[in-house]
RNA sequence: GCGCCGCUAGCUCAAUCGGCAGAGCAACUGGCUCUUAACCAGUAGGUUGAAGGUUCGAUUCCUUCGCGGCGCACCA
């Protein structure tokens, strides 16, 4: 195909499409300016521009006395105040914003003509020297201006008014939450706070990695596309491999593949990656989310409790200079050691029931009134329902809840001296599960029993049968040393440490419904 | 899946009891060589989410649908 063939959109050659009366006027106007620029011989989409400073660095350089220095900076035009023969504008980049000042006398005529064809949002590079305006703002006196990229669509830039008390009010901002997620590029472009959240996310994930690397863990990558799924109870996403003509699943957890690596003498491993669960969407659930799982040979769940505290503390220290955070209108103190309480003590504390002796009927009565079909729930489902409805909401500061009923924990070792319990704990923060960990079950025969029990339970509930992961049991036959394992919801940790209450605000591209263009 | 609320100019929002669909910002034209929500004068911009119904008349009332927000359910 020749590049001279015009592309059509809605039946019009694309250039006519942009010029068409059907387009909103701001887009038509910008397209007209694009053509005017080309008529001037200006390439509106530049190839590169070398800068000497980021905008924030340029600002700081002046404060450090570099006023005579010529600088080259670049960014998006965030505001533009044209006064006829001079103009002020603010440029914005990732580091911040900086004012520029253009004077007709001080520039080549052609560059002044470019200036007059600029719009908010356009990318420009400028060269000039720094000075301080009469009102005290550090500003670039521009003597050369280069257009780097012409925007055809106005960004939803709000105007920021600085009130007398120093507080800022944004007028006509980008308020449509749906559009902010659908057009995350625009959201990021106009909201520095959104960029800050994702910068914090990168720091948090970096801190987790650094901590584990320093502790001698090996970072690994295990299959996302799996012939069997396991390691958690959740519905999977199902797909098909054409060449192998085989059903495959996106992983719902990393667990079983990571523990195989401990069998393989990789005695400390971790993985940070996406897992996929085919469940509903809400404020704390997205179908794909990030999980950190780590496994350490010779460790048990007590060791994992210490690791949990250290991991979260390391992540918090990377983005906060304190241990108290506000989250979902609650004040959460992350400082260690965390409170520890057994599962049954926690149930007793918030329901006055001894779940070990209580009848199924008593357990049902303790459920919230709006519980769905409580009569169909078995003992372990009732306990889980009680725990999430009556206990979790009350746990604000990080709390280690340990010794879960064993039937709720098919991959955890039985508790020493009490086979009805499993050596498992969860960390609940702000009413939300953050961490799940256990002494890993390493007895292949016990593991087979538990898998088989699960398979029977699925049959009883007439769910699609799920094959036992025979290969995983074979790996256990080769010998899994005593091992502690821990899984941490990365997105929830980022939410906690950045004060966000919705998982979508810590995911760049959360799952949304199909949007009909 | 259920309930409540919302969808009006490019953006943020108004519109009384069902009676001519408006404002600010952005845009466009002109003016202005230290402005900063720049300013001054003017101009243009609408299938009120979609379809249907009631009515002389619907942004407004009713029904269905779409999308979103919040809550519930689901998610050991």
Features:
BirA Bifunctional Protein, domain 2; nine-stranded mixed sheet; OB fold (Dihydrolipoamide Acetyltransferase, E2P); 517 residues; RNA-binding; 2 domains; alpha+beta; elongated; five-stranded mixed barrel; single chain
Would you mind describing this structure in some detail?
- With 517 residues, the chain is of the alpha+beta class.
- The protein folds into 2 domains: 151 residues, Nucleic acid-binding proteins (OB fold (Dihydrolipoamide Acetyltransferase, E2P)); 255 residues, BirA Bifunctional Protein, domain 2 (2-Layer Sandwich), CATH 3.30.930.
- The strands form 6 sheets. Strands 10, 14, 15, 18, 19, 20, 21, 22 and 23 form a 9-stranded mixed beta sheet that branches.
- The protein is elongated and about 85 Å long.
Percentage of residues in helical conformation: 25-40%
How far do the termini sit from each other?
Answer: 27 Å
What is the CATH-assigned architecture of the largest domain? Answer: 2-Layer Sandwich
Strand elements, count: 23
Radius of gyration: 29 Å
Short description:
The longest helix has 23 residues, at 192-214.
């Amino acid at each position: 195909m020749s590049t001279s063939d015009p592309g059509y959109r809605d039946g019009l050659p694309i250039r006519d499409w942009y010029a068409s009366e059907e387009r909103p006027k701001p887009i038509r106007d910008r397209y007209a300016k694009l053509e005017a620029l080309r008529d001037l011989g200006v390439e509106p989409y530049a190839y590169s521009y070398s800068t000497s400073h980021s905008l924030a660095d340029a600002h700081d350089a002046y404060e450090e006395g570099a006023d005579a220095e010529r600088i080259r900076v670049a960014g998006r035009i965030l505001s533009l105040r044209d006064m006829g023969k001079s103009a002020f504008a603010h440029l914005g980049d990732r580091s911040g914003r900086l004012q520029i000042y253009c004077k007709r006398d001080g520039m080549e005529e052609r560059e002044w003509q470019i200036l007059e064809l600029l719009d908010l949002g356009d990318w420009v590079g400028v060269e000039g020297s720094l000075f301080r305006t009469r009102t005290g703002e550090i500003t670039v006196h521009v003597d050369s201006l280069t257009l780097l990229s012409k925007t055809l669509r106005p960004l939803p830039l709000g105007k920021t008014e600085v009130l007398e008390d120093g507080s800022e009010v944004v007028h006509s901002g980008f308020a449509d939450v749906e559009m902010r997620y659908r057009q995350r590029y625009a959201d990021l472009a106009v909201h520095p706070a959104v960029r800050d959240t994702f910068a914090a996310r990168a720091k948090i994930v970096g801190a987790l990695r650094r901590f584990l690397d320093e502790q001698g863990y090996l970072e690994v990558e295990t299959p996302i596309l799996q012939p069997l799924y396991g390691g958690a109870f959740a519905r999977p996403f199902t797909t098909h491999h054409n060449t192998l003509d085989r059903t495959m699943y996106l992983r719902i957890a990393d667990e079983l593949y990571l523990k195989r690596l401990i069998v393989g003498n990789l005695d400390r491993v971790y993985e940070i990656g996406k897992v996929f669960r085919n469940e509903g969407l809400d404020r704390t659930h997205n179908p794909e989310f990030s999980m950190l799982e780590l496994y350490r040979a010779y460790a048990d769940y007590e060791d994992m409790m210490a690791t949990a505290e250290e991991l979260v503390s390391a992540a918090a220290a990377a983005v906060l200079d304190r241990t108290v955070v506000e989250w979902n209108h609650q004040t959460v103190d992350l400082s260690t050691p965390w409170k520890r309480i057994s599962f049954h003590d926690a149930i007793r504390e918030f329901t006055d029931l001894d779940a070990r002796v209580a009848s199924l009927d008593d357990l049902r009565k303790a459920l919230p009134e709006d519980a769905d079909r409580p009569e169909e729930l078995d003992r372990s489902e009732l306990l889980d329902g009680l725990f999430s409805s009556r206990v979790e909401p009350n746990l604000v500061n990080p709390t280690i809840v340990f010794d879960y009923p064993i039937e709720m924990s098919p991959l955890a070792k039985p508790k020493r001296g009490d086979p009805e319990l499993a050596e498992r704990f969860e960390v609940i923060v702000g009413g939300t599960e953050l961490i799940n960990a256990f002494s890993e079950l390493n007895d292949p025969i016990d593991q087979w029993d538990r898998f088989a029990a699960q398979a029977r339970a699925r049959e009883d509930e007439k769910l699609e049968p799920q094959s036992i992961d025979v290969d995983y049991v074979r790996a256990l036959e080769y010998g899994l040393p005593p091992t502690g394992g821990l899984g941490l919801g990365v997105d929830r940790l980022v939410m906690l440490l950045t004060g966000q209450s919705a998982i979508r605000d810590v995911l760049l591209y959360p799952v949304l419904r199909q949007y009909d263009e």
